[in-house]
Fold these 4 entries.
Entry 1:
Amino acid sequence: MILTLIALPSIALLLFLSQELLNSYYSRIITLIGIYGIMAVSLTLVNGISGVFSLGHAGFIAVGAYTSALLTLSPEQKEMTFLIEKLVWPLNSIQIPFFWATIIAGLVAAVFAFLIGWPSLRLTGDYFAIATLGFSEIIRIFALNLNSITNGALGLKALPDHTNVWWAWGWLLVTVATVLSLAYSSFGRALRAIREDRVAAQAMGINVFKHQLTAFVLGGFFAGISGSLYGHWLSTIDPRTNTFGILLTFNVLIMIVLGGLGSITGAIIGGALFAFLSEWLRFLEGPMNILGFKIMGISGMRMLVFSGLFVIIMIFWPRGLMGRSEFSWDGLVSVFKRRYKR
Amino acid sequence: MRKLFVILLVVFLSVSALASIKVGAILPMTGGVAAFGQMIWQGVELANELFPEVLGEKIEIVLLDNNSDKVQAVNTARRAIEQEGVVAIIGQVISSNTIAGGTVAEENGVAMVSPSSTNPLVTQDKKYVSRVCFSDPFQGVAAAMLAFNNMGAENVAVFVDVEQDYAVGFANYFKETANELGGSVFYEYYKSGDQDFTAQVSDAISKGAGAFFIPGYYQEIALIAIQARQLGFYEPIIAGDGAAVPETIEIGGDAVNGLYFTTHYDAGSPAITENAKLFVEAYTAKYGEAPGTFTALGFDTYLVVRDAIERAGSTDREAIAKAVRQTKDFPAVTGIITIDENGDAIKSVAIVKIENGKFVYDTTINP
Amino acid sequence: MGLKAPPSPFSFQSAGGVSLDPKTLLQNFINGLSLGSLYALIAIGYTMVYGILRLINFAHGDIFMMAVYFALFFVTLAQLPWYLAAILAVACAALLGFTVDRIAYKPIRNAPRISALITAIGVSFFLESLAVVVFSGIPRSFRTIFPQSLNEMIIIGGEMEVKYGREVIVGGIRFPVISLITLIVAAIALVFLWWFIFKTKVGMAMRAVSLDIQTTSLMGVNVDRVIGMTFALGSALAGIGGILWAIRYPQVWPYMGFIPGMKAFVAAVFGGIGSVPGAVLGGLILGITEVMMVGIMPGAAGYRDAFAFFILIIVLSIKPSGLLGRPEIVKV
């Protein structure tokens, strides 16, 4: 416990240093890692701990992004951006601070999660996954067409650059604390019981539906928060497939699988790895100077390596990095003990 | 092992020690509009070969692929400015990407010159983003004049791609001018990536359309043309500069013969400047065929940026950005380019027709 | 910096309105049938794999895409005549499907279902990225690959007129030849599969595997081979569907399989996942309703893809086993 209390300020110090010493390109990536962490942890709560396979995460992230954007943009900016149809009242005259906008974004996303989860959780396994996928796409397509609310395909531009390392990692802390305490409570144990054997859990008297719905809604809440942060990191959002479509859900899925399905620490590690690899692999696409020869990179190589790595990991290492276990101080110590015993 | 490392280190250091002025080129080399990006890159590359130096130093083009994606547009812009330290950027190609990447350029005070983005929002209220092509308010007027005056159509069906800023804007300017000219238009909608337009075409036919206008990109233009002819629509089809790539003919085949479109330049038009002649010769020598619109625009953008660096007399980003906005009467391939204080260029619109599977120059509409 | 709104250059007329002209309705029904027949072919492959493995093979749409590229290159690079190229391309697609199963799905046969699903997604991504790197992301034309006679239209009704110096038929109901061919191929596939699954030993093995993998392997059946065959067969159908699709919509690009794949999947679920006739029925109905929706309400064209998902969710909520499927019994 004491170690955790020491670790937290040290992380804060590291973040502070990163802001000072690194150029904006790198420090933005560190912020992105925080955002990805929230996305991954919220999805892990649903997919990993509760065993409910949701493919609809992108929808909630999108809802969060749009809600917070519509609340933080100034009325004048909205006037300029909404060129096809005017933004509806009262959205066109509101502007509230980032913190509240993020919270409201999370709440709205949670409401959506409730509305979607209620009918969908009656379905099992694969059917549920497809239903959530469907809902996520429906959200996106509605966003694409509802010009008077979301500005349709034109999207929202010039989102104020609120997201910085502190907001992202701060919310990450909140998310992790909440999910952790939930996972280790009786509620969490019930969730895991449902994940292992649904029928047995039901036989033991656990209300499966209520538990799963609660987890789903909570996951949606934090997804919405991450959406708000993500939108303000991107500074421009639009309802296209690449931004808020299935691709985003898959990316988050990759993160939690990489780190270990069911592990919260794994989710964060997965998020960090993903952010890092995405940018680092870029070198494959530009001209490379090897031994004085200029080798033209191949466009698209990045995604190829990524997906190839992903499939290989799934085949040979499906537990991911952390499996189902969490980071613990004892665990860390035992890793070192094993090393030095040789 | 260590020797190899040392050799590599020395080579690496020596290579990176070569002084050069870095100019970024952020283009969609993959993704939905990669055809445009690749053609523009050809132009930029060719120009770099012909005019490789400025202020006594080599110009190094740093090519970054934005994958036709808005988010990547922002990321690559940041990378170019912060990681690569470019002094100016050529890019991006389609309006939505240039608008997205433009915010980054504005933040950091780096000049971004677009070869082909035509939406007015690209340069509106911006100090650092400019373009060497005309913008859609004018292109819309030209297209409308083509449809209603030159071709005498009435009641035009406009196919709008709801996913693209470019299409939505272009269609609107077309409509405005149409109303002024006394014609009528109605909209049919689709999304980028759609392949089946039979419902929309059937609907347009049943509403008695006298012509189709497709202010979108070539994939959809070609498919709509094919399906229109298949469903019995024989009236004229008009498009915008999104059609100005050979893929339109490759995909569309016979269905696009007789299609007219508005564009920036055609190799068949009389060469106005020395650079124009040089460009056509060099391109034909290198590739064995006539150059296309977007290649010419890429070529021009490089020249304009280089010229701005020369006039600025330094590699200071601020100075270069100012110099870009002061470009006056620059003899480029696609016309004589003057960039006004808003970052827009006043250019003429060329009308090109597709005949027997080839682009044939028709006429020019001047501002 | 005074942020003043510029005079709005946009005045979008929200396109509402419903158009119910009977002739257009009929034409759109035919249009939908044409699209639906393609969905049907692809859906069969999805349903077969799911029936056996309970796996949603997200990579199915990408095998469809690969088959088209194979055909493209067999004609352009290997200079093969189109019918030979088509047959080879379908064979390659079958091989590809088989290989994907061997390499990616077999090792995780016993892992939790989520892993299999995620792997399928990964394979799908991989195939798409591979296509981008190898074939480049620019759309290519398929127009010159197959004889143009396949893209002729069958015209019923209408009158001859002279337009722009050519004699043409105006009006009438039009149906592309290739769509007729697709319907025929789908029907043949249905009959063939019915015979194969119910009248051959391998088919019986497939049915057994779909009921209980472990018991079937205990009975001495080489389960892996049966599963591999299923993949090969389903992928071959995807390949055929792909080539027919490319003839109708002659534009080839690495992501071309994504949306048709998803819609075919919706169709398979709608018709009853695990049931081959269900897949065909689902595909046809989906195609027809999708096109007719746009035809009747042109302003809603942007919602077209959402419509497919709507159907999916409603079907899943009311009758998860689809139109022709059997309800799944969960054994405790």
Entry 2:
Amino acid sequence: MKVFLSAVEGSAPREALLSIIDKVKFKYNLMSYYYIKQKNEDFAAKIRDNSELVIIDSGAHSFQKGKRVDWIEYTKEYAEWIKTFDRPNVVGYFEMDVDNIIGYDKVLELRKILENVSNKIIPVWHKNRGLKEYKKMCKDYHDRVIAITGFKNEDIKDEQYLMFLKYARKYNCKVHCLGMTRKKILDKVPFDFSDSSSWLQYTIYGRSLDGRKLPKIKGEEDRKNQFAHNYLLAMKMQEYYYNKWRKVNKD
Amino acid sequence: MEIINKKINDLKPYENNPRFNDEAVEYVANSIKEFGFKVPIIIDKNNVIVAGHTRYKASMELGLKEVPCIIADDLNEEQIKAFRLADNKVSEKASWNYELLDEELDNILNIDMSEFDFNNIDIDWGNVSDLTNETYEEPQHTMLECPSCHHIDRDIHFKKVEDEE
């Protein structure tokens, strides 16, 4: 399982990553187009070029929190940007899965805009689409990446993830479980990909990812070092889950 | 370099040891059981452990009375403090070449390497239910409406506020 580290675009995490980028080859990073387009394009390119793999979120998660845009315009911009950003180490680009705001039919229209420019668009299944649509997605996207959500009790109950995975494997799909950070599940369910911003959350709350309390920060330099410290620990976590599931996932 | 056997009860763990090692104890104990005590514990002249806290805990767990030790009497107090950290730190820099690791593991046939946390974890997909309308049950949510702005959302997005009297 490859756990992509997310939330790297904020100003403090950005500075932290830039401070170690020449010393460390990053593994897997997830960035959001919503934040990249806010003057972070150069940074995103740097992260891409120094990462083993990168995956791009459409920004749909930001829209769940109330932000609104002109959907067609935004998606067209996203598509144009994909054309310039794409490299072989970019696993894919999540679709605009804003079903709960504009409905699935409109989401399909937006997907079409994206698929006109790339064959790496990742559909994200939500329960409103129905089980039939999940199965259709696995068939249509055989040998490619698909996504489900990992937020507790949102679309899938914890004990049902393995069933979803089993079905996807029939069509050789790789499954990304969005926002799945719960160790209890990651230790039992061999998703191909997931993502985590725990390294950031822990730093914000003054904790080291290994559980220790971080010393009180005395300035920006300390703050940057603490973000970098937890990012590096998160890379150990990436190694742990890769190693744990690499045989099951044939990585 | 002399290796001497010391009574385990005479050894003193360093009170400020900054490493969490409890999760590793079981595997180290398995290693000692399988292969014997091959890496001595490093102690200072007062029997305080410099390197080998996990081996010490594993030995206690195995009920060993004596363990092989090396006394680092050629190091001063500061060097001992530094070595204690450095010995742990350098291991963080190493990582696995998985291709070579698999080759090595494939050649070990008669020793259960999962005893040392080399997992051979697998999923029995045959035992996982098929995904059908009968086996999939949609999670149910409680929806709430904000009394102020009338925004409707899942209960987890609302915070309980005590009444202000």
Entry 3:
Amino acid sequence: MELTYEPRIVGFLCNWCSYAGADLAGTSRTNYPANIRIIRVPCSGRVDPLFIVKAFQLGADGVLVAGCHPGDCHYSDGNYHTRRRVGLLRPFLDYLGLDKARLRLEWVSASEGKRFSEVVLSFTDTLIKMGPRSS
Amino acid sequence: MIEIIRNKAKEWLEKNEDGCVIGYERASDGMTARPVFIYEPHMMGKLIFDETCVHNLSKYLLNRRGTRTAVVVKPCDSRGINLLINEHQLDRDSIYIIGVVCPGMKESHFGRIEDHPLSKCRRCLHHTPAVYDVLVGEPQPETASHDYSDVARIEGMSLQERNAFWKEQFGRCIRCYGCRQICIGCYCQECFVDELDPLWVGIRSCPEDNWIWNIGRAFHLSARCISCGECERVCPVGIPLMLANRKLEKESADLFDFEPGMDAATAPPFATFIKEETLEKVE
Amino acid sequence: MARVGVFICHCGTNISGAMDITRVVEAARKMPMVVTASDNKYTCSEPGQASVRQAIADNKLNRVVIAACSPRMHEPTFRKAVAAAGLNPYLLEIANIREQCSWVHAHDRKKATDKAIELVKIAVAKVIRHEPLYPREVPVTKRALVIGGGITGIQAALDIANAGHEVVLLEQEPTIGGRMAQLDKTFPTLDCSACILTPKMVDVANHPNIRLITYAEIKEVRGFVGNFKVEIMQKARKVDHTKCTGCGTCWQKCPEKSPSEFDLGLGNRPSIYIPFAQAVPAKPVIDTDHCRYIKYLQWVADGEQGKKPPECRICEKICPTGSIAWDQEPQTITEEFGAVVVATGFQVYDHRHYEEYGGGAYPDVISGMQLERLMNASGPTGGEIIRPSDGAHPKTVAFVCCVGSRDQAKGRTYCSKVCCMYTAKHAIMLKEHDPHVQCYIFYIDVRAGGKDFEEFYLRALDDAGAIYIKGRPSKIYQDGKKMIVLGEDALMGRPIEVAADLVVLATGMEPRTGADRLAQKLNISYNTYHFLVEAHPKLRPVETQTDGIFVAGACVGPRDIPESVAQGSAAAAKVVGLFSRDALVTDPVTSVVNRDRCIGCLLCIAVCPYKAIDCETTRDKRVVAVVNESLCKGCGLCVGACRPKAVDLRGFTSQQILEEVNSLWS
């Protein structure tokens, strides 16, 4: 494993909860590795499974989909659908040879700044330990 | 059995003068079957039904919306009809379904019919069609449980082995889209691969784009694929497509307790949710 | 051809302190379609915004990227700035290089700079694909519907009507007044409930802006904020209220009595009746389940089998105005409204569920509300507090708190908030009625959180001499003429038995039966107990997720009269605010369906949380989905579900997001 391996993480964060939580992580001056690139979406339910597949095909080492806690979705139902879509996509990608640990679904509320940075830290760590993708 | 099919079809066509009967006839090799469209009652003698009738004829129903059609279906094909009705593509009342209790189909290659059944038929659970207007043959008891040993074999491989396996399989894809054309669940006017803006998948046959194409198509069929196996049958380069589709079928059954095509009314998993469910989370 | 301007903010040293801004600017200049890139110390300041406007003019920019703080902070600010320069405000994208870059990567300047460059790259890739978006205006019908004629609904209706708008107040019972009409006195002031309620009821009846529709229900609700179409089902009273004068002759003479709902079964009422003396409207309805003539008509319709029931029709014979209308049928009334306030209130938890307390089995085990009826001078006993079994005056009264509340075993874990207070009130009132009575109150905690509540509770302890026993009784049974309450005195750590003449179960509050069905018709949410769900429990207590539909009072959760009245007024204020404009401006970030690509699978309709998508038939006879942009909230759930990619979300199109992803590897 190269010492200079820096995993590339694409994050899809919902505007109302997880993106706000990521903002709070900044306002509270927490620290996390700079490997993640965040793309804002209105709701985690906006995330088309094809975005995730595309990100992996281009070379992403990890994809994070973050939304509101179930029951708290700003649009009431979005995250329930996200949960099902990612819940089916992840074992499928693993079956096709893409480790399911590379696709993470996390619920981060707008008040969980610290939690967001912990999520990014733990995800980055996991990806570093896993090493670069074999394909 | 074939006499019943012919008679029922003839009766129906006599009552529905501008209708069409879609069934199977003997192919030009004198041995296998091919689809046939019959518009005249006196031509009903053309209809056959034997173990070479592998084709899923229900796809043709999509071309005949707004008209009356009778169709001969095996159990797997009938599930396709339920799927299309569920997705508002077909009007149940304008279709006359001649459901056949299926003995299992056999492969035919190069002028020879194999003596063993198709692998999809060996695994088949439902020998009686899920929907029909008339049933031909004695209803058979269902096979007790699913046999996912083929999927389990891949699951048992290591991550690297799986990666290599699928890289090799999808690497052969020539992007002929035969799988899409034959699949009953693929009926979009413009497929996502045809869209240029955004360009979801490049048009060339190359490993990266083939990967997205095959995953995308499989995922669009998750909890919809009715396991008729036609995609794999028509693939000119022998990609084991059912091996991918069945993994999604297994996961859908595990996670959502859902089997596609068994009825036309149940909401599919992506149309609904259960608040309390927790699908496995990975840390 | 896009001409993008990139503006990178130092934000003082918040951003520039953690990264090399110069390197970011240089990299931005090289990005595709970027015509100009510059930096600024405080872009949000007036000089900062002015420089952006100037740059737009000088470089003929048609797209703008601002790399600064979070869009959640200043997107509206920069949209205005861009609009002031003559560009559509939606041709802007913000790269978050502060909260999500400089502030979290303060220790690695190189990495923070590299990341900032990529974040700008993503924003440029997206903004190139932005299209101008235009908000729409929808008209507002300035009429309000208030569902529920209890104190909350009455308050809301009066406030809206006083502000000059038409209100329809809908009530499913024959009269308005709700639970407050059944109460005797209210805590902590011991105001006579009817005395403070009935003037408001009369105000409602007389108000020129209020149309009162009683004995009616909601059949169907369609439409959206500012434009609701409601079908109301007026139930058949069998009495013509346009002729009836409310003289009362009919209900005095009606021979068929049955248990009174208003008195909770403690007394009877005739089959043609008004629920209580001060009912509004004070005109009767006929209870078709018990009316003798209706039973006779049924006997005739069934073929005259068995014994002939009496034909009766006494009310019809003696009515001086000929108001009895046997052939009256339910009627549908369709009305249009701009806003709806739901104030359907609560019902009392049915104490018969507590078999261990003899609920329903022993006549001397009653609910708190039943005690109110006994205490009330207009009640079934004329205000005499007597045992239902033998009419004797009870000397020992036991109260059990938290019946149907805070009880996991009965599936009701919440606290009903008012029972501690009304039980204290009952103890005080019982002492007032009879100075020799002794009250024993079995409690878990005493919750006296409101204004003057603690002092009121101390009155029950000190002045009324109530004995409070901490412990939940396990069983209540009859022994001779006494009811034995078996409990635990937890503070003393020993069991305790109280032999009471009367037991009062302090039953909790639950939403009215059918609250869930009404919520479904209105497309608003409710929880497991069928309490309605507000948009935000702290900051938006009277709004719902559905624009234009407001909630107030006990239908949202247990609360007392002052809270309910406050909420009724709050909801009214929201409605009046909504009506203060002639048109509503909609957010243009909405979904739109490409009809050529749509295959009519209608999965989008199934997933839309706002029922904002409908289907229609095209000219070539295909069924396709179509989005109602006034209802669409721009979540994009439909887009995530769509297989042929027929529906897309303006402002977050698939092309924009895909190019954001692509740009990370280009």
Entry 4:
Amino acid sequence: MPPFSQFRKTFVPATQVHFSSLPERARSIQGLSAGFTSRVIAVFIDIGLVALLVLGAWGGWEALRYILSVFYTLPAATGIPLLIIGYFTMWIYWTWSWSIGGRSLGNILMGLRVQTKHGDSLGLGLAALRSFLSVVFALGLLWSIISRKNKSVQDIVLGTEVVFDWAPLLSKVDMTFTMEKNRTQGGN
Amino acid sequence: MSNEFDNQEAVVEISLDSAIGTDALNSAVHAARSVASGALGLARFATETTVYLVTESTKAIANSILDTVVPVAVNAVVSRIDMNEIVAQADITPILDRVPMTEIADYIIEEIDLPSLVRESTGGVADGLLGTLRFQAIQTDNFVSDIVDRIFFRRKMRATTPEVLVGHATI
């Protein structure tokens, strides 16, 4: 550790100082539109999460029912209601996670972010709409294989996009910034 | 009767270049010169030594006097002054203007290696297994989009993030 006086002698002031919280290898892809594979994995992670939630809640509810009722009858034909609840939960979950920073659990794990084409976070309404379209027409994601800009049908309809964002934060905090320094050599 | 001296020749020889006389003169001059220069040197040495001794002893005396007097005087002054009050009255803005703030900031940033600290504290998740998974997905996408673009005879292919393929292929 050189003392300040020595540092000062050898120091060449940079005009730009670049700070980045991103790992080295993720910087080149930061902000580029994400392709189908990354996104479909993220979707499956989200589906897994919601399935776990719904089935867990249902199992808990049935267990509670079993404990409390004397004459317990096995639940009949729960598949369709559970699926509907699952779809509904999915819609709520995506709406919530995309509106608070554009990232669901799957997005976080895959390093993705849902945003408008201007790079802003989705508002609650837009997030709800996109979430709804994604739930009722999940196959729309397939279009991102063909689309030049990796856009799914939902993205095209609503003008949104999914980009790589490896910043390990849930909310949209721009941890990558470039600091411009205006140094005047020799005081005035 | 004739003077007997008349018939005799008197020869008086006077030699002007007497060897013995010149040598003696030379050596006498030389000796005198040596004595004079020796006396001069001695005088000079004596003077210099005296000056030196006087100067040094004066210095020593002055120093010892100052060593005794100054602390007492300074103590006397300082004990009558509230340094904090003086500092509080001082305008530190011009002093701060002279302090190279940005250089100090750079120094600190460099010394603690701030960027890597930020990276390490936040970016740990993106390394290792998860990072590998993400990059494999990206590479699959590049592969797929390349095939699709070829199928559709697209002249301009989609950006396949070449940096990723080149720079990060070996994860």
